[in-house]
Amino acid sequence: LANHYSPRLHNYDRQGQRIDEVEFHPAWHGLMQLMISHGVHASPWRSEAGSAAHVLRAAQYILLGQLENGAQCPVTMTFASVAALKLAPKLAAHWLPKILSSEYDPASRPIEQKRGAIIGMGMTEKQGGSDVRSNTTRACAMGEPDQFGQRYQIIGHKWFFSAPQADAHLVLAQLEAGLSCFFVPRFLPDGSRNAIVVQRLKDKLGNRSNASSEVEFQGAQGWLLGPPGKGIASIMEMGHHTRLDCVLGSASIMRAALCHALHHARGRKAFGRALAEQPLMQNVLADLALESEAATVFAMRLARCFDQAADPQQAWLARLLTPAGKYWLCKRGPTFGAEAMEVLGGNGYVEDGPLARLYREFPVNSIWEGSGNVMCLDLLRALGRQPEIRSALAHELHLALPQEAASGHNLPSAAPDTVALIAKQQTNASDLHAPYARYISLLLQDLAQPLDEFGARALAERIVLALQAGLLLRHAPPFVAQAFIASRIARPVSANFGCLPAGVDASAILQRALP
């Protein structure tokens, strides 16, 4: 219902006053209430959050993502905004109690009159796209500082302005010092509406339950977050967490599509027997199940990096795996969705069922918060600026090797030689670990060389596949790890699903995927 009855923009009230209000179907508000009441927008930031708060939230996010994805956008931005808002302690003290509240309050009122708040963001402009340094929106100081600090007047536009109904947005605008980040509320402290004019809502391929818009700032007021001229670094405090949710979101849609496909194949008979009993269909479904499990275990491991960010090694790992995972998992999504849809045949292609909607949802996670190329360039930037990342990755990958082969070595400091030795030792001892050891040996050797932008996508893919294989070796049954390694590590990944090699226990994989 929330997707069928998409949001409507009302620029004026019946007296002709400018209001720029977005009307949603009640189903949207039900979805928002469900997520916010369970703390999916804020739980890791609360004082009572435990040591696994990000992992717990990630599990909730993946579960809810199997239901609907559009409402996750404002929930994600609200969650991620806390990291950036802490750069302005006075604003944070005023806003955080409402942002962290478990009450969903969709009313358009000043924050002082609300039980809860949601936050959006605006970075992209017509002429710039991902190149936000070319933004033309400008800000200038206004009078004396107030209770929150120096006020700024903002003039310009945003070509993509997410969740225009949000209570405030993080916005990039130019100062003399360079691109800077501002906190821009919908209502000003005196109760008047801020000068943010919503031009129209975007007519999107998917994510149709969610409102995305184009806006103009006609002298809107905002407060600086972070130092002047450091806007990208400031808003990336938010972006690092929104990219985590792109990974979680893709894993969740994969899981939903897999469940629908597998359920259908078990109940549908063709040529005298159930689809799920036919060998070629089993190959397709088992391949999808492997991809879904690998995506989920990667996403949960990444969430644990966020929980353990006080450990430099985990922080370095998160810095690498966030862009790499967003690139690879989100790229696999549309192909995954198309294959799951094909399992249902014509019934998958029509809007009566969920597969068409799920298929349309996949691309937004790849495009939003940085496209595939942007993620791969960010990965190269991380490796170039923080050499310790290589050691953190090597240590993580080594955890999947047999202890008797890995023991006694200083793995992070001598990773390529060590892994090459283990690969040689394991060639005849273990068909499961030998190809993995060879794969990570070559990967770590290549990471030790000067990195080339031309091959950045292939490098991101290899990093994610190596980590997925290692996690499955450590945590999944052998028949899952064996199938993943045989189909993605021992040979190049096929562009299509359903190309698993002989010897894979497809029946066991499918029973595990959906008992």
What would a concise description of this structure say?
This protein is of the alpha+beta class and 515 residues long. Helices cover 51% and strands 15% of the residues. The chain contains 17 helices and 11 strands.
SSE layout and pairing:
Blueprint: E1 8-12, E2 18-23, H1 26-37, H2 53-65, H3 72-85, H4 89-99, E3 119-122, E4 138-146, E5 149-162, E6 168-175, E7 178-185, E8 196-201, E9 212-225, H5 231-267, E10 269-270, E11 273-274, H6 279-307, H7 312-343, H8 346-349, H9 355-367, H10 372-385, H11 388-398, H12 403-406, H13 415-426, H14 433-447, H15 456-475, H16 478-489, H17 506-513
Parallel strand pairs: 3-6
Antiparallel strand pairs: 1-2, 4-5, 5-9, 6-7, 7-9, 8-9, 10-11
What would your notes on this structure say?
This protein is α+β, with helices and mostly antiparallel strands and 515 residues long. 51% of the residues lie in helices and 15% in strands. The chain has helices at 26-37, 53-65, 72-85, 89-99, 231-267, 279-307, 312-343, 346-349, 355-367, 372-385, 388-398, 403-406, 415-426, 433-447, 456-475, 478-489, 506-513; strands at 8-12, 18-23, 119-122, 138-146, 149-162, 168-175, 178-185, 196-201, 212-225, 269-270, 273-274. The strands form three sheets. Strands 3, 4, 5, 6, 7, 8 and 9 form a seven-stranded mixed beta sheet that branches. Helix 7 (312-343) runs antiparallel to helix 10.
